[in-house]
Amino acid sequence: MTADDLLAPFVDGTAKRARFSVRPPAPPRLDPVDGLLAGVAEVDITPPPGLPKAGYSANAHDGAGFRTRLRARVLHLRAGRVSLAVVACDLLGGSAVVQHLVARAVAGTTDVPLAGLMIGATHTHAGPGQFLGTDFYNRFASNRSGFDPAWTSFLVERIAGGVEQAVATRAPARLAVGSADVWGLTRNRSVDPHVRNPEVADRRTDPHRRYVNVDPRLRLVRVDTEAAPLGALIVFSVHGTGIGVHAPEYNADLWAYLVGEAGDRIAAATGTRPVVGAVEGTHADVAPALRPGMAGHVEARRVGRAIGAAAADLHAALAPDLTAEVTLGAALREVDLDRDRTVAGTTLPDRPAVGASLVAGAFENTTPVVHRIPPFKAGTPKRWGADGPQGAKWVIGSRWLQPVVLPKKVFPRVLPIQVLRLGPAALVGIPFEVTVGSGRVIADAVRPALAAEGVTDVVVSSVANEYSGYVATPDEYALQHYEGGHTLYGPLTLPFLAAHAGRLAAELASAPDAVVADVRPERAFDLRVTRYLPAATGATTAVAVDGPARFTDTTARVDAFWEIDWSGPPPGDLTWHEPMARVEAQDDDGPWGPAADDQGWDLAVLAIGPDEGDPTRHRYVARWYLPDLRAGRRHRFVIGAVPSAPFD
After folding, report:
1. What is the C-alpha separation between 46 and 137, in angstroms, rounded?
2. Confidence class for position 399, pLDDT limits 50, 70, 90
3. Torsion angle of alpha carbons 557, 215, 120, 473, nearest 10°?
4. Which of 439, 431, 412, 420 is CA-nearest to residue 504?
């Protein structure tokens, strides 16, 4: 049975809807192991050009190639009777479809249960969408709508392969978890709602209570073998919006530079490069601190590398704390709002609602003109009739018309909440974009249940296992900025989630095997289909490199680059998740050697379009950014195995 056999009937895009059900495999009862075992894997998930990009909604563009690759990085841990895997993806968010299908795919080859599988994300706004578990976000998160079974199947296959690789290569290991504050690289983009939270008032009366408007804490899980670093997981709170909406290519935004810098520095310090992954913290109202008007790779690199340097310093500082005596735990609850909308006296509305302020956009990416007009304008809540289940939210189209256009079934109706115990820390996965204030409330709800078990830090991670919009605090919600307008289930969303997270943590603390799986016996999906992933045509067109190479000098916003034109088969006939291009260098008349490749942040490949004279041939361009040019040295591009003419 393959990972994607449920999606196979829909991958050609001819079906109007993908209707399928997944029965979660029963979690295996594992024999206990002594000490800690760990394994890691890194897989490339970069697709061909042509997929809609998710994050900037209708303002986005189809991806035209890549500049920094998209990857999924797996950290697998096994201790006691618990096996878990955290998958850090360069995507907008997790996906219940992907989580369930990956768990199903690896059930026969690994001991990782669904409850122990977390699909986390960097929340880059430059990766493809169309893989989520709801019609609403497959429609509105991207510039084009629809669920793409072929792209989703690719993701499932790649991620499942990574989990299997991590489990197959696990070995005795040691783990340490710690945090460090990183200042000056993030800012709260929605300060007016944030300062309405009670801790601001508490700060005035209690000088010992710490208050900041961002979460500066960078958390890092360090895992080593007995001899060398093996893997690291970074959790940090910052939106993946360092690169603006107009960038044509897929990229991992500032997270590519963050992970790359951390990996480079750890390798330089230890002689071994671990697999470094990263997932979001409580980032919903936190943006990168870009210089005004400078969104792009220059600023994303500056911010990302600085955070990555701090992560490498923390990695080094954790060396004395490494231990093989690690307690693990895994708990997952799927809260089905069609069956139960009440917990601890808090009841959510029967149906979600889209607020007017969502249409106006977030602070740094507002919708022109509309963002200035009430009720779309941020900070214009309802002054009357605000006692309903949606509170101060202006419901787009009214609470009568919106259900006609957007029926309840298109929205997220099953909310996955996950708690993973990682030694002294608990990682809480929430499917919403969580504001800083909301993150503090959720952490406070979880902490008492696990404190007696030796958990000293609770880390909340947004957009885990699905994308379900935002969660603002009730006080933030009342002002109806973007974050409140995008909190679909009203002002009580946070108390509802916090109560569920606290209960789940308490159940985990008392579970005899440290595993809790309270999931639907069968997850049914019914998604409108549109195929965007280009299919292979079978073309055997050979790659041809045109010349000469051209140079474009640096500006304040754009890095200098050399570029070369080349042509080859259509995008669907090229393997974009494998190496495609590199630059070689030659000193004097010596041999050619490596200078740069497309695995880091130096080399980009973009699709231009079909060749006008030959429909079987497409045109492309390769660009080498930040070229390292030295006197007496010549360079050449190599596309596949085909070199260009030298340049210097």
Report:
1. 21
2. confident
3. -110
4. 420
Interval 92-98 mean pLDDT: 98
Strand 17-22, strand 523-528: pairing: antiparallel
- Cβ atoms of 72 and 88 within 8 Å: the answer is yes
The reply to whether 351 falls in a domain is no
Shared domain for 615 and 569, answered yes or no, is: yes
Please give the pLDDT value at position 394.
96
pLDDT reading at 204 higher than 60: no
Would you state the structure tokens that stand for residue 112, as one six-digit string?
Answer: 């990782």
Q: What is the DSSP string of 523-574?
A: EEEEEEB---SPPP----PPPEE-S--EEE---SSS--EEEEEEEES-GGGS
Closest CA to 459 of 516, 406, 511, 420: 420
The reply to whether 419 and 501 lie within a common domain is yes
| Average pLDDT for 329-346 | 97
- Beta strand segments in 186-262, E: 186-188, 217-225, 229-236
Note down the domain range covering 608. Answer: 544-643
- Same domain for 302 and 174? yes
pLDDT at 159 over 90: yes
Q: Based on the domain organization, do 516 and 556 belong to the same domain?
A: no
Q: What is the 3-state secondary structure (H, E, C) of 65-102?
A: EECCCCEEEEEEEEEECEEEEEEEECCCCCCHHHHHHH
Output Rg (C-alpha) for the chain, integer angstroms: 24
Q: Taking 90 as the threshold, does the pLDDT of residue 547 lie above it?
A: no
Residue 630 lies in a domain: yes
pLDDT at 208: 44
Cα(11)–Cα(153) distance, integer angstroms: 8
Evaluate whether residue 95 is within a structural domain.
yes
pLDDT tens figures, 373-396? 999 999 999 988 888 999 999 999
The SS3 call for residue 171 is strand
Report the C-alpha gap between 99 and 43 in whole angstroms. 16
Residues 505 and 589 in one domain: no
Largest CA distance in the chain: 80
Average pLDDT over residues 76-91: 98
Residue 11 burial (10 A CB sphere; 0-12, 13-18, 19+): buried
Q: Are 303 and 185 in contact (CB under 8 A)?
A: yes
Kind of pairing between the strands at 581-587 and 561-568: unpaired
Average pLDDT, the chain: 94
**Domains contained in the chain, number:** 2
Number of helices (H), then strands (E), in the chain: 13, 33
Residue 502 CA, distance from chain mean position: 24
pLDDT at 160: 98
Q: What pTM value is reported for the model?
A: 0.96
In the three-class reduction of DSSP (H, G, I as helix; E, B as strand; rest coil), residue 330 is classed as: strand
Structural domain includes residue 349? no
